[in-house]
Amino acid sequence: MTDKTVRMAARALGRHGLVHAYGHCSARLDADSFLVCPSKPMGLTDVGEECLTVPVEGALPDGVLGEVRLHQQIYRNRPEAQGVVRFMSPHMMALAALGKVPKPRHGFGSYFSSGVGLWNDPQLIRDDERAVGVYAAMGDSNAVMMRGNGAVTTGASLEEAVVMAWYLEDTCRVELEALRCGLAETGPVLSDEECAVRATRAGLIIERMWDFLTHGDPEA
After folding, report:
1. What is the pLDDT of residues 160-209, one digit of tens each?
2. Where are the domains of the chain?
């Protein structure tokens, strides 16, 4: 994993409205450390700008945002996790503010068949106790939403974690539409079997969305 990929991820999240002034993303370096994007609005990440190395265990280095504790919890407890995204996209934020999580109703939703975790506390996650709580609320899912405070996704790569952030935003969009038209309780939901078939990584699914999200990036 290189700084360039982290920078590209940060700019992609900003370019597509998944973050604004707030948010961060990271990629695992090894069992003991990871790279996190610069502590600034992600869309303003400069070409060649240095990313920050953070230990999986221990205090956050100077200049690292407090909520990066969430990344530490995921990397500490999930050896398979290679990327983490903390984001605040509009439809997801609206649904999270209602204290609700989406159901798998369409293709992108199938990637969250185990459910999306919900941390029912609107306060910022700037201490280890809350970070532990958010991770526990995540359960077996690859995503957790925080009431009024955004979401976190993880993946087998940073690229996948970014794609899951986009998928979760679209899944929340569909859920809000179901609520808006009064069909949230009666509308169809994908079964576990349907999700297992649809949530494929074959056919360059992740790579194609990553290419779309990073198209035009100065470091692509």
Report:
1. 999 999 999 999 999 999 999 999 999 999 999 999 999 999 999 999 99
2. 3-214
H/E segment holding residue 74? helix 69-77
Q: Which residues pair with 7 in a beta bridge?
A: none
Whether the CA torsion 119, 68, 56, 163 is positive or negative: it is positive
Q: Which CATH superfamily is domain 3-214 in?
A: Class II aldolase/adducin N-terminal domain (3.40.225.10)
Asked if 216 contacts 14 with a C-beta cutoff of 8 angstroms, the reply is: no
Average pLDDT over residues 119-138: 96
The total of other beta-carbon atoms located within 10 Å of residue 89's CB is 24
pTM for this model (two decimals): 0.97
Q: What's the CA gap between 172 and 144, in Å, rounded?
A: 12
Instruction: Look up residue 133 and give its two tokens.
Output: 């709580």
How far apart, in whole angstroms, are the C-alpha atoms of residue 92 and residue 162? Answer: 14
Looking at residue 142, what is its pLDDT? Answer: 97
